Prior knowledge:
It comes from Micrurus carvalhoi. One of its GO terms (molecular function) is structural molecule activity. InterPro entries: PCI_dom, PSMD13, WH_DNA-bd_sf. There is one protein chain. This protein is mainly α. 65% of the residues lie in helices and 10% in strands. The protein contains nine helices and three strands, in the order ααααααβααββα. α7 (76-83) crosses α8 (87-99).
Amino acid sequence: MHPVLESLRDTDRQWLIDTLYAFNSGNVEKFQVLKSSWGQQPDLAANETLLLQKIQLLCLMEMTFTRPANHRQLTFEEIARSAKVTINEVELLVMKALSVGLVKGSIDEVDKKVHMTWVQPRVLDLQQIKGMKDRLEFWCTDVKNMEMLVEHQAHDILT
């Protein structure tokens, strides 16, 4: 942790650290819980709507990032629940993320699903790096299994 943030740990300004971490992870619920602290700051309170929109975009990015690359289909319900928006606001949130280049993908309005193909790279905390490591290990296992399958099936294919 950065020395400036470390100096705030276990003080009456701990909420700053918690708010930054909530923001970085796109945790809308935690951000709203911390409103009693950050809401007392005039500049933050005056920009609450803008901050909420930004953290909702980060939430969508985090939802995309934490899923395996071959399973990045999100339902409107999942997005609404995590980003704390209504089902009717999900499409607008996704369109905003697509238009500013935070994610790439497509919206299936009929089935109420979003298929993401890419998420903007960003600075990761240790937990996010661990999640990426776990997904990489899972992918390596899949590749190894496919290699073994091809090896066993190759004789049938070649003869």
